[in-house]
Design a protein that fits this description.
The chain is an alpha/beta fold and 246 residues long. The protein contains six helices and eleven strands. It has helices spanning 48-57, 59-78, 132-162, 199-211, 220-229, 233-242, and strands spanning 5-13, 16-23, 29-32, 38-43, 93-96, 99-107, 114-117, 122-126, 168-172, 179-182, 187-191. It has a four-stranded mixed sheet with strand order 1-2-4-3, covered by helices on one side. It has a four-stranded mixed sheet with strand order 5-6-8-7, with helices on one face. Strands 9-11-10 form a three-stranded mixed sheet, with helices on one face. Strand 3 and strand 4 form a beta hairpin. Helix 3 (132-162) crosses helix 4 (199-211). The chain is elongated and about 80 Å long.
């Protein structure tokens, strides 16, 4: 519980306004609030000149901290956070296996609708000008193809290891699930947006869904099956939950 304010005033420090509060405390403290206002709490017995001396000794730190807070606030305003099911595309960047990369839309003689993943960018090729909705559709196709390609390879490897026989793979955007398994038909579904998360998350979902071909529900036996093949599944699950696209 904070101490009662005995008296308060404002001080100036080379253009900065400091809200000074005297309280029944032992130590002097300096803090910057979210609105970038500066507050200094000082013991009641401390003189204004002593407070001013303290402020001057902390001026460099204070200005650096203010700059850091302002930069963080500006960055938060610029960066969009994507929720599950929302296509991560701001018109300039795409996400691929946990990395945020520039998206370069290039007028080219190459086949319309093809793309190439380079070390530091993803290039999307087209033969005629693309409207915004066409670019969005192109990016969604890109995400889907990445999951189709890697998902199919992982499914083949893990199905053999686990001794199960899935009948097919479908990839589409889902709002609330990363994957599903039709235990009656043996079909596996994966979320298109898994292409944006680190690749080990896709592997975890593949193993998870294939395990349903051995145990339909999420019983202790099901989790034991997943753990026997992928002991680090909890870490993968946490990564899937915690990784933020910003």
């Amino acid at each position: 519980m904070s101490s009662k304010i005995i008296r308060q005033t404002a001080l100036k420090l080379h253009g900065l306004t400091i809200n000074l509060q005297f309280k029944l405390v032992k130590n002097i403290t300096l803090r910057i609030k979210e609105d970038v206002s500066i507050f200094l709490t000082a013991p009641v017995g401390m003189s204004i000149s002593e407070v001013q001396q303290f402020l001057e000794s902390k001026e460099q730190w204070l200005r650096q901290k203010l700059q850091q807070v302002l930069q963080e606030q500006a960055q938060q305003k610029q960066e969009k956070k994507y929720s599950m099911g929302e296509l991560p595309f701001d018109g300039r960047h795409v996400w691929l296996w946990g990395r945020r990369l520039p998206a370069r839309f290039l007028l080219s003689g190459k086949k319309h609708g093809t793309y190439e993943v380079e070390d530091e960018a993803v290039c999307f090729y087209y033969r005629s000008e693309l409207r915004e909705e066409a670019r969005i559709a192109f990016v969604e196709f890109f995400y889907k193809q990445e999951v189709v390609n890697k998902g199919a390879l992982l499914m083949a490897v893990w199905a053999k290891k686990m001794g199960v026989q899935p009948t097919g793979l479908k990839v589409h955007r889902m709002k609330t699930r990363w994957g599903s398994c039709n235990v009656r038909t043996g079909g596996i579904n994966l979320n298109t947006l898994l292409a944006c998360w680190p690749e080990e998350c896709l592997e975890y979902i593949v193993v998870h869904e294939l395990a349903h071909l051995q145990e339909a529900n999420h019983s202790p036996r099901f989790h034991a099956i997943v753990e026997s093949y992928l002991p680090q599944w909890r870490e993968r699950k946490k990564l899937l939950e915690d990784f933020k696209l910003v």
